[in-house]
């Protein structure tokens, strides 16, 4: 790796990887982008586990979904950037955590976050999350993304499916007035989930926070103010 070079101002400061290191071109480009990414530097400096933390910070600065005392469920939480932000902003603590996170990957403990290591698509994951939170959530956030296969269409379909399952979960568990935020993809088959959210929330917004790379098709859906579930109709009695 060459030392960072200074040119005309801080923007010219760039780390370059030598071609002969035996890396594929695509890996070299990824590494260079990573090493020169200001959000990566900020996440290290500010103690966040991922640059993704800044996506939630930027979305929350704009839409104010995380308030002191807010109960949050974080889907697809590892390595934990969003959970760190959520726990800090809602003031959660280990005695009575108001942030519950799930991922099938391991995640190191975060103060104020109760973690469930499990696949969210397992049938009993929703009940386990609610039992851990001990109440209905005010906010459901999902940054879940399927592992990439290299086949773009397949990746889209899998991540859209996760978004749809997360939306269905939110509609089934949120408190009235609660909010839902989830990762989606531009150009994905998102009409089903969009219709479902529009029906159940006061408003639905597409959000591309500055921390989300311009070249990435990633986008977030923010559904504001859950309208609540209709009461189940009373069953006619036999008498
Ligand atoms: C982009 S990362 C999340 C980053 C996180 N928001 C942060 O700030 O550190 C997506 C995560 O979704 C998780 N994931 C994908 N499918 C999942 C599933 N079915 N159940 C649980 N976690 C899942 C992945 O394991 C991965 O850790």
TrEMBL record:
Gene3D superfamilies: Vaccinia Virus protein VP39. Belongs to the class I-like SAM-binding methyltransferase superfamily. RNA methyltransferase RlmE family. The keyword Cytoplasm applies. Its EC number is 2.1.1.166. Residues 48-226 form the Ribosomal RNA methyltransferase FtsJ domain. Specifically methylates the uridine in position 2552 of 23S rRNA at the 2'-O position of the ribose in the fully assembled 50S ribosomal subunit. One of its GO terms (cellular component) is cytoplasm. It is found in: Cytoplasm. The lineage of its organism: Bacteria, Pseudomonadati, Pseudomonadota, Alphaproteobacteria, Hyphomicrobiales. Pfam families: FtsJ (PF01728). Its main location: cytoplasm. This is Ribosomal RNA large subunit methyltransferase E. It comes from Aquibium carbonis. S-adenosyl-L-methionine binds at residues 80, 82, 103, 119, 143.
């Amino acid at each position: 790796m060459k030392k960072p070079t200074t040119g005309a101002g801080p923007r010219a400061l760039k780390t370059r990887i030598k071609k002969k290191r035996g890396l594929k071109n695509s890996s070299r480009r990824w590494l260079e982008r990573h090493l020169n990414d200001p959000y990566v530097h900020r996440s290290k400096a500010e103690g966040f586990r991922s640059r993704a933390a800044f996506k939630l910070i930027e979305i929350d600065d704009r839409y104010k979904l995380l308030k002191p005392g807010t109960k949050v469920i974080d889907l697809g939480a590892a390595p934990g950037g969003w959970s760190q932000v959520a726990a800090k902003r809602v003031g959660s603590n280990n005695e009575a955590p108001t942030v519950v996170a799930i991922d099938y990957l391991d995640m190191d403990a975060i103060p104020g976050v109760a973690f469930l290591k499990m696949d969210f698509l397992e049938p009993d994951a929703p009940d386990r999350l609610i039992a851990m939170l001990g109440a209905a959530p005010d906010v459901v956030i999902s940054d879940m993304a399927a592992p990439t296969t290299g086949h773009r269409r397949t990746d889209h379909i899998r991540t859209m499916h996760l978004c749809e399952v997360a939306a269905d979960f939110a509609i089934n568990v949120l408190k009235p007035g609660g909010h839902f935020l989830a990762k989606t993809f531009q150009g994905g088959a998102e009409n089903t989930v969009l219709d479902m959210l529009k029906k159940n929330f006061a408003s639905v917004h597409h959000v591309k926070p500055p921390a989300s790379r311009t070249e990435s098709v990633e986008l977030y859906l923010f559904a504001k103010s859950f309208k609540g579930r209709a009461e189940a109709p009373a069953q006619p009695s036999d008498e």
